[in-house]
Structures are given as structure tokens and as C-alpha cells.
Inverse folding.
């Protein structure tokens, strides 16, 4: 929350101009004044309204997995945020579904995570996304394209528009950038075909809540999803073990993600003893000085191990912590009523 009245006064007209601009752009696409691009594969967009994480990457992964389980050929298209080759028109095949074919400098951390964790799914990185989708149409035998973080990418026609909302603060403070975290006004949810409320492991959407969201977005089907801990794994290790194996051990957590507070809450919800925590900017590439600082903090508080997110490990060099054990808190997305969800995607 912006506390300074002077700063709020300065930012308010900036936010109003931003809101008017993005709303006008959406209207121009809706009326056909701005032309859209259509590709032959069916396109599913996964996105949100706010700056920062609502679980788009694990949700995208889950959607692709569900389609693959139906024997569909799937390509995931990502922008590849903060990749070194991020110029317009630059397109890379990050994975052919069997092998990772580009490193993190070419893909960015989120696309690299998708490429490393998914089998049987093409992962393509490109900007703008509509051009990457055209590349998929021309070069890959994919019947479906899942567009990661695509809600605001209006130029590409999609068959299903999935909007993820944080169950606790779906519209943050209700204000657009720079007064709040909304990328566009909340009325933009009218574009959604499926609205998914995402919460923590104990979250569920009641019947009355579902009806309230249907009233806000009458044309959308409403679903809920929750983050689940799939266990922990060792950085550069193999296999996932129960999270309970870390209970009773003193840990230092670190992350460079959009919602670091949520990561810390998830760790403590699983009764992990977090003696200290370090937060870096989102998509942070860890330097040797950063890893030395993390180890120093661990030594000072008598920690036995480190713990971080899967996305952060994409930005770490091999053997970054030497002999220090560094665990990954493995998260998966569970969509409630997946049968109905799949039907909504396919109809």
C-alpha cells in the first residue's frame, strides 16, 4: 500500500491513464478494429489479472499433463521472461518432449522448468506469443497450444481463456498499476471462459462462493484449485521424498519469486522450522556472492540445510552450495473436479 499522500496524488492520474489505455486496447480487439491471429491448433490461454504469481506455471503444467493423458499432442508457448535472447521474433524450441534443447539463458527460468519437468510436451519460447504459435503450427505436430501467461495477449485467438485468481486477494487492492497490482481493471474477467480460484492446500470453494463468482462472470465456468506439496527433493539429486523428513531440522529458506510470503507460509504450514529466510527479486539469477551470503546466514543461525523453490533452482549454477544440502519444496497444482474441467476445455 502506498502511504505517501503526495505519491498517491502523483500516481492516481498515471493509473487512470493506464487503465483507460488497456481498456481501450481490449475494446479495439473485441470490436475487430485490431485484427487477431488464428492458428490451426486449439489454443488454451492460462493467465491472471495481477502482477505476480497465482501459480500460472504449475497450472499450465497441469493443463498440459491432463491433455497428454487424453493422448493429445500439446505444445506450451512461453514468452521466456528475462531470457538473454528476448528480442522480438526470437523463437526457441526448449524441449521436444523428450530432451531439453536450450539452456536457461535462452528460455528463462519458468520455461526451463516446464521443459525439464514435462515429458511428451513441446515447450516453445518466443516473443510475441502469436508469432511463436504460428511457428508451432508450421513446425510441430501439435493439436493443442497452451499459452502460458496469455490473458493479456489479445492478438492470438484462443478457444478457451482460463483466468486464475488468488483465492485470498483476487483483485489485490482493486487498483491497477501503479496504484495496485492489477494489470487491467477487474471487469476484464468478462473475457474468461473458465475462472479458477487458486488457494493453499486447505482451500475449497463452497456452493455460495461459486454462485457469487458466476454472478461476477456469467459466461464463465467457475472452478477451484489448490497448491499441494508433492514432497521435497535435493537440488542436483534424484527422487522426491516426504516433506516430513525435514521436520525437526533447522532450515534457511531463500527464493526469488513474485510471492515470497506465500512460499514461507507454505513451508510453515508443513511444520518446517525456518530459522532464517532470504528474499531476492523475481527471476533472480544467483551470483556466487548471493550463494555465499545464503551459506553465511545458514552458518550464523545453525541451520542444517537450505530450502528453495523449483523455479529458483533454474537460476542456480551446478554445485552452487558445495556440500550444503539444498532442498526443493516441490509444488503441484490440483484442480478440483478435473473431469468437469476437462469437459469445459474440450467443449
Amino acid at each position: 500500500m502506498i502511504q505517501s499522500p503526495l505519491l498517491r496524488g502523483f500516481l492516481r492520474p498515471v493509473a487512470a491513464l493506464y487503465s483507460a489505455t488497456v481498456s481501450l486496447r481490449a475494446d479495439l480487439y473485441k470490436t475487430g478494429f485490431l485484427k487477431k491471429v488464428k492458428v490451426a491448433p486449439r489454443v488454451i490461454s492460462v493467465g491472471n489479472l495481477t502482477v505476480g504469481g497465482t501459480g500460472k506455471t504449475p497450472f499450465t503444467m497441469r493443463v498440459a499433463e491432463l491433455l497428454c493423458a487424453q493422448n493429445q499432442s500439446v505444445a506450451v508457448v512461453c514468452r521466456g521472461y528475462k531470457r538473454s535472447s528476448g528480442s522480438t521474433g526470437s523463437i526457441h524450441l526448449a524441449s521436444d518432449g523428450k530432451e531439453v534443447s536450450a539452456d536457461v539463458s535462452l528460455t528463462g527460468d519458468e520455461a526451463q522448468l516446464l521443459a525439464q519437468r514435462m515429458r511428451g510436451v513441446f515447450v516453445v519460447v518466443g516473443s510475441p506469443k502469436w508469432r511463436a504459435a504460428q511457428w508451432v503450427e508450421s513446425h510441430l505436430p501439435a493439436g493443442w497450444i497452451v499459452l502460458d501467461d496469455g490473458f493479456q495477449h489479445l492478438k492470438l485467438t484462443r478457444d478457451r481463456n482460463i483466468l486464475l485468481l488468488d483465492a485470498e486477494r483476487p483483485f489485490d487492492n482493486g487498483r491497477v498499476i501503479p496504484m495496485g497490482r492489477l494489470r487491467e481493471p477487474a471487469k476484464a474477467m468478462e473475457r474468461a471462459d473458465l475462472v479458477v480460484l487458486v488457494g493453499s492446500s486447505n482451500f475449497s470453494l463452497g456452493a455460495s462462493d461459486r454462485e457469487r463468482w458466476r454472478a461476477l462472470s456469467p459466461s464463465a465456468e467457475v472452478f477451484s484449485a489448490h497448491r499441494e506439496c508433492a514432497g521435497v527433493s535435493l537440488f542436483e539429486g534424484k527422487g522426491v521424498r516426504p516433506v516430513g523428513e525435514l521436520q525437526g531440522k533447522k532450515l534457511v529458506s531463500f527464493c526469488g519469486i513474485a510471492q515470497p510470503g506465500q512460499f514461507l507460509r507454505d513451508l510453515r504450514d508443513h511444520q518446517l522450522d525456518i530459522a532464517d529466510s532470504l528474499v531476492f527479486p523475481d527471476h533472480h539469477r544467483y551470483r556466487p556472492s548471493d550463494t555465499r551470503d545464503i551459506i553465511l546466514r545458514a552458518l550464523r543461525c545453525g541451520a542444517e540445510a537450505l530450502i528453495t523453490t523449483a523455479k529458483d533452482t533454474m537460476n542456480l549454477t551446478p554445485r552452487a552450495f558445495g556440500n550444503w544440502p539444498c532442498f526443493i519444496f516441490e509444488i503441484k497444482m490440483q484442480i478440483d473436479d478435473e473431469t468437469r474441467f476437462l469437459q469445459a476445455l474440450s467443449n
The mean pLDDT is 93.
